[in-house]
Amino acid sequence: MKVVLITGASSGIGHATALRLAREGHHVVASARREDRLAELAGEIRADGGSVETRRLDVTGREEVAEFVDGAVERHGRVDVIVNNAGVMPLSRMDSLLVDEWDRMIDVNVRGLLHGIASALPHFQRAGSGHFVTVASIAAHEVSPTAAVYAATKHAAWAITEGLRQELEPGIRVTTVSPGVVESELADTITEAGAREWMRTYRANSIPSDAIAEAISYAINQPSGVDVNELVIRPVRQR
C-alpha cells in the first residue's frame, strides 16, 4: 500500500485517479477546493472498501500546500506519491485580453505545481524514495488557437517536471502524463463564447478520465527500479 496525495480530486482525472488507486489498495489523500465533491468521492471510495481521507486545498497557497503534505506525513509517517493534477483551462484568444484568466492559469497550473514539488521534495529526499506525477496536457507539446496561455502553462509544467527528473538522485521517480481530449469539467471554465464553441467541436471525440487514471496507476505500480518518465494518452481520433 502506498500513501498517495492527489490535488484537484473533486472531478475529472483527479477524481478517477483517486477511485482507481483506492480500489487497488492504496491509501488516498484527496484534495480540492470543493468540499462537497470531496465528500461524495470519499463516500464512493469507502462504499467500495477503499481507504481515503480528504482535505480542502487551494494549490495557489504555498503554506496551505505545505500543511497538506506535512500533515499527511505526520499522520502516516510517510508520503509515497504526489499527483499534481489541479489545473484550470479558461481558453480565449489573446486579443480578448482576459488577463485575470491568464493569471489564474499561471497561478494554478504552474505555481500550484511548484508548491506541490516544494512541499513533497524534502520528505522524498529524507526517505530516499518517492514519486512525483505531473498531469500536464497534450498542450505541452502543441499550441492551438485560443490555447496560447494554457499551452504555455502546460509546457512549463512539462519542463519543470523534466528538469526535476534530471536533477533528482536515483530512488525518487518522476512521471509526466500528457492527456489529450478527456471527459472533464475543464471546458466549463471557458468564458469567451468563441473559444467555448471551438472547444465543443474539439472535444467531439474524447476518452474517459479513467484512461488517464489507469496510466497513472501503471506508472506508480512499477517496480522501484523502473521509472516511467512520460506518457502521452489521447483518443485514437485526435491527431
Question: Describe it for me?
Answer:
The chain is an alpha/beta fold. The chain has 7 helices and 7 strands; from the N terminus they run E-H-E-H-E-H-E-H-E-H-E-H-H-E. The protein has helices at 12-23, 35-47, 62-76, 99-127, 148-167, 193-202, 209-220; strands spanning 3-6, 27-32, 51-56, 81-84, 130-135, 172-179, 230-233. A 7-stranded parallel sheet has the order 3-2-1-4-5-6-7, sandwiched between helices. Helix 2 (35-47) links the parallel strand 2 and strand 3. It is globular and about 50 Å long.
Beta-strand residue percentage: 15-25%
Radius of gyration: 17 Å
Query: Uncertain runs with pLDDT below 50, 5 residues or more?
Result: none
Number of helices: 7
Number of strands: 7
Overall SS class: alpha/beta
Helix content class: 40-55%
How would the global form be characterised?
Answer: globular
